[in-house]
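[User]
If only I could read backbone structure tokens as easily as an amino acid sequence. I have put the entry right below:
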Amino acid sequence: MTLVKSAAVLFLLFILSCSGAAEKAGIYNQSEISSAELTVNDLLRHVKKLASEEFSGRRTGTPGGDKAAEYVASEFKRLGLTAIDEDGDYLQPFEFVSKAEQGDSNSLSAVINGKDVSFEHEVEFRPFQFSLTDETVGELAFAGYGISLKDSSYDDYDGLDVDGKVVIILRYHPEPDTKDSKFARYQSLNYKFRNARDHGAAAMFLVTGSVDDSTDKLVKFNYARYRKSGIVAMSITRTAANKLLTPLGKSIDDLQNEINSSGKTNSLNVEGVTVTVKADVIPITSKGANVMALLYGNDPLLKDEVFVIGAHYDHLGIGGRGSRAPDKYGEIHNGADDNASGTAGMLELAEYFSANRDKLRHSILFQAYGAEESGLLGSKHYVENPLIPLERTYAMLNLDMIGRDTDTSVVMNGFANSLMWEELVDEANEEVGMRIVKKKTSGGGSDHASFDRKGIPNLFFFTGVHDDYHKPSDDWDKLNYEGELRILTLARNLAWGLDGIDEKPMYVKAEPSAHGGNSGRISLRVVLGVMPDYAYTGEGLKIETVRAGGTAEKAGIIDGDLIIKMDGKGIMSIEDYMSVLQELKPGDEVIISVRRGEEELELTAKMQSPH
């Protein structure tokens, strides 16, 4: 028999085994199952509790997040599920850099035409949370909006040497009333910091002109995650800017109006001014936890193999980074759909299967993840530190935002990552009759992606992004509990189908995708085809996985590479990386510098559209 024929026969046998497994999925005959049922009342109880003011938005690393973890653990204990931590605890703790705080040594002073001038912290200036903690002394320059268009038709740094200087930059861009302005892609704070840094500036002061905001406020220090910018970065008021610009005889509004009206740059050195600035920003390490429990199966040959039913329990706290309502910072983001709905569903399935544990062949590992909103940190921590060996984990079902079923439908991602899914899902749906939007893509922006990267077959249940996504208005009374009950019935039936499998299913690597809505940011015209390591806190962009057939793979980038420069721009963080991507368009060829172990490589990538 030839090698080709052998492969074909093995493939056929695998298909037949999957078919047999699907037939065995019929073991969930309702007449054999106990009276414990999935109920709307239970879902409502869990969601109202998790999405209550008591939990303050459940951001991981906060008291509200800890309370949510304790609630899930108490439910596992109530159900008599087994804690698998070595200490007999339902919690698997982990640490992560969650945010930054201002230290006590932030200061700003200047010598202006020979006169000492000091500025008041929190009144005239405030550091950005991603500012480099450092002190610098330098001459002053004004660099307009700090924008350098890729086509060179506009460059605020053209002819201006800012090496070692303190540079004042205007917020936003010079066409505030122009829809689809060519400058819009270049107005982000991350872009401006990176561009100033790449031009050699020692510090950057950002000021908002009157054209953009009649008030003279400092930018809030309220972002939820700390990232390195590599430059001393301050928000200053127009009052402070005008003091610094005294030798020019012009105000910051004068300079802004000149640029906006002419459409031309107006950058210059400010003679007679020397600035001394010290930024004191302290990264804060927080503690989070995954919550997990095991329900043992009964088959002597299969009970050591598990499948996972998981959901993240965290949300955005009181806003800040990740919120789609930046003007609502300080308001509790209750996250009823994202993801009290999924956590409630996971708990309801845990209760159901606990009542029917004597029918289970395999074991089920129920998991609630922390820090999903910070970059899948909880699920990533688990797959890197599994309490049950991953080789004994044969599938994962992820429930994330399943509370907004509007037309008896559900989106399911991951059909291409295993040959078993089509038949198992179709059989599981016979009773329910839902319209299933089957997505072949896998990976993406939820916790199943962590398992996908480890080669574990997975499916992701999702009812879509809505107007309340990542806003304080995502409350318990907006969920469709009857619709979620239908989805959980489908998930329950599918879980019985997974339990009916005798042999561990084969994983097939599929194209990754992301879930999530338009956050109001500029959409990307290109993708590199990588999944960053969100837990990495060093300098550069660490690549966790490279998509098969994507731009990065074609360029020679591999898993574990560290991108340090892209298209001539330094990359210190994921924010730097994203700001560079925003400048690029399909067909652009860029040089990417990567560090691979002790080696540094320059690779050429031809950028591709995300579609």
